[in-house]
Amino acid sequence: MSEPRKPPRLGNQNKVYDRGFSNPESARLYQDQWPGEPALRKAYEAGEQCDGCAFYARFNADWGLCCFYRSRHYLETVFEHFTCGTFVREGNGPHSFTEDRQQHCRCGGEELAVPRGYPRRREVKLPGAKNPR
Q: What angle is formed at CA 36 by the lines to CA 54 and CA 21, rounded to 5 degrees?
């Protein structure tokens, strides 16, 4: 099996920024609202923004690092409202840094899917214990 191909760099300065884009080309994409890329503009408008991506490592309230090796913005500091074509929806809580939806954060208390053949979780009532529900 071959190694995954990393996307070419667009001019990332490879420095940690927490107050702006580390790649001026990405800043222009955001400022100009992805010219020539209507699908990205539509994804942005639909809320597919970096702060909800499984591969976004937050630095502060506005800026974070793209950690998805398949993204053309890999290892760039990006704005939380930026987006790209490799967005992996996970929500705005902690991020798992995986494409495997079974391992995504269940911040809202969603149950994990139980794999086939795996016994379902059962509630055990201890003698004398009150039922928490």
A: 45
Per-residue model confidence as pLDDT tens digits over 47-80:
999 999 999 999 999 999 999 999 999 999 999 9
Whole-prediction pTM: 0.68
Q: Where are the domains of the chain?
A: 24-87
Report d(CA 124, CA 65) in Å as an integer: 43
For residues 96 and 116, give the distance between their C-alpha atoms in angstroms, rounded to a whole number.
23
- 88 Cβ neighbours under 8 A, 6+ residues apart: 53, 54, 55, 68, 99
Nearest to 100 by CA among 67, 55, 56, 66: 55
Tokens read off for 19: 């107050």
